[in-house]
Known about the structure:
- The complex is a heterodimer.
- By secondary structure, chain A is α+β, with helices and mostly antiparallel strands.
- Chain A folds into three domains: 6-213 and 309-342 and 412-473, no CATH class; 214-308, 3-Layer(aba) Sandwich (Rossmann fold), CATH 3.40.50; 347-409, Dna Ligase, domain 1 (2-Layer Sandwich), CATH 3.30.1490.270.
- Chain A has helices at residues 25-32, 36-53, 81-105, 110-113, 119-123, 171-184, 186-191, 200-210, 234-244, 300-305, 329-337, 354-362, 388-400; strands at residues 6-7, 11-12, 72-79, 145-152, 158-164, 222-225, 247-249, 254-257, 260-263, 270-272, 274-277, 310-312, 344-345, 349-350, 367-371, 381-382, 405-409, 415-420, 423-432, 434-437, 441-442, 448-451, 467-473.
- In chain A, the strands form six sheets. A five-stranded mixed beta sheet of chain A has the order 3-23-22-19-18.
- In chain A, a hairpin with a 3-residue loop joins β1 (6-7) and β2.
- The radius of gyration of chain A is 23 Å and the shape is globular.
- Chain B is α+β, with helices and mostly antiparallel strands.
- In chain B, the strands form three sheets. In chain B, strands 1, 2, 3, 4, 11, 12 and 13 form a seven-stranded antiparallel beta sheet that branches. A four-stranded antiparallel beta sheet of chain B has the order 9-8-7-10.
- The longest helix of chain B is centred in the middle third of the chain and has 15 residues, at 126-140.
- The interface between A and B is medium-sized, with 36 and 32 residues.
Amino acid sequence: MLTGYFDEMHGKSGGKAAEVRAPYAKLKNWVQAMPVDLRTLKQAEAETLFRRIGITFAVYGEGGDPDRLIPFDMFPRVFSGAEWARLEKGIKQRARALNAFLVDVYGRGEIVRAGRIPARLVYQNAAYEKACVGFVPPKGVYSHIVGIDIVRTGPDEFFVLEDNCRTPSGVSYMLENREIMMRMFPDLFRENRIEPVDSYPEKLRRTLASVAPAKCKGEPTVVILTPGHFNSAYYEHSFLADLMGVELVEGQDLFVEGEYVWMRTTEGPKRVDVIYRRIDDSYLDPLCFRPDSMLGVPGLMDVYRSGGVSICSAPGAGVADDKAVYTYVPEMVRFYLGEEPLLNNVPTWQCGKADDQKYVLEHLEELVVKEVHGSGGYGMLVGPKASQAQIEAFRAKLREHPGNYIAQPTLALSTVPSFVEEGVAPRHVDLRPYCLVGERVELVPGGLTRVALTEGSLVVNSSQGGGVKDTWVLAE
Amino acid sequence: MRLVVDHVTRYRYDAPVRAVMQSHRLTPSDCDSQRVVDWAVEVSGGVPGGAFRDGAGDRMQGWTVPGPVEEVLVRVRGTVETRDTAGVLKGLRETVSPNCYLIDTPATEADAALFALARGVDGDEVLALAHGLAAAVAQAVAYRPGATHAATTAAEALALGEGVCQDHAQVLIACARLRGLPARYVSGYLFATEDGTPHEAAHAWAEIHVAGLGWVGFDPANACCPDERYIRLGSGLDAQDAAPIRGVARGATGASPEVLDVTVAIRAAEQAQAQVQAQSQSQA
Lengths: 476, 284
């Protein structure tokens, strides 16, 4: 039993099992009424369903089966309507501030001039695209899908771990987890009033259509641009294209002619107005970025910058979700919105600063250290869980390139009961909601809950063996 | 000075390609040192894309040539009224922060020799330092056409000790950045007088950002700052980023390289034409 953590079902860990927080009240009977053999049966059924729909997630760096399933834990994670209302406000606020920041740093750079963020962090950032300066995308939106990773440490304590402004993945799991839970446990959905999430694809399509370029008259043609079926998130790309009723294309399916981008179809070329791209900036266009890219569309950036097509997220959006820039997001909320941030950042040490570096080197055993440009839980040190050898190896890397690292305290991530071999036990979770930004800023009530299924583990990344749960928001 | 430019670039493909896409930085922008009187870009069989000005103030335009294509001819003709501003770039409408030009690219990445060259120049005052760096680069890299190629890096050119204007500019950029000065690559044209030493009518030089003064041009190849003989087309982090023409062909087989030849004629409007056969090179 994990102690010292906030358990979202039982409150303080170590509390009497009889104490159950209100949102979980009806799950108590459900789990008690489920004998072990039925649970095993249901778990097998869930796995079969996931296999049948083909939802898998390639796991990098771990060897084994690249098409292996991401483990699905049937025990749902539940928020009350009031809890969610508060989260939703904070998420939308942050998504607005991040977009305001992007418009600013590709425009006049007021926040830099005002001395609120160092110029170096913005303009010498690898994700900053000089080629995008001076062009304002339609509706002033750079990041159309903002995935904000949130952790909880108490009943009212939520922290943002990181922002994902480029192309956050995982939303297909949010939709599939719900679908499968509803199929397997229809009674649960009668007993609990759970807000639906199935409007997400339509909302996403509307968001994308709302940022069509001014040159587009009539209903915009939206496509999803994928690097191809070798990409670990290919399933998600095709899943979303299906649900939105738009074409899934690769670079070779598109071409530039004159002022527009066209898609090859059996009925001849069709003009494309909005590209939801799931490939990185540097591969988008060999005439503007990496000349050796075969994944992109030659000439795309010239069409984009002359207003012939919209690209979502806008090239250059990555400068807002850099882990060193992250420290300044609360400052962005104050600077652009004149509001106090509703969601807090995790206190962060920037190893590029001498004082911070000194502190971090002296406290490696207690801190989480991350690479500034890393993602997916790679190249990360969890001090309290690491061996002495791992810590020393990291110390050397950190000394060599201090500017590449940030450090944060090891947070007491909340737990949610999960089905594990020995029965039901608390496991640490985080949350990734997907905020849509177009003409409107909106999000569906829910998100992706990732769970560290290994006892005591605080790393929830699917690439590190984490699993997923259905995430409920109860109607008030 | 009134300069008349006639610049023809021809691409030939061994086998017909399905289409050709190009991105042009081929039209000068007005600033204190130059005013465009007339200017036209033609692309044989080409469909023009939308034209726009980028954040660095450069006039950009995409072109597509639907196939099958065996040859593409890009012809630039125009007249520019120029003025000597002692190399100082003023009056260009640009919004890119000079800080962006402190970033290295593979072509300008420093090595020990570049570091030593940059360190070897004294100068407390920024403008004097910039002049010193330009002079040091001119001395370290002798002008010799054919010694280097389009993909030669600053470090390679310095090790070789010879190169052309592209190499001079990239070595100077690398050195300036090592001294903490924002620096960028500039593509343009140079009017070569018959008696003078200058070469390469399709020319390149560097700009270094001097606080309080702004961007200042330095041409180590000719040991001077750009004057009324220069026409500025655009800038970038390195030669590739500032290229007047970037292009790719669709359906080109890897084995058939494009054969590229370029002629640039620049004359002063009141003088007889001085034809310059600029360069002839092939591009993969």
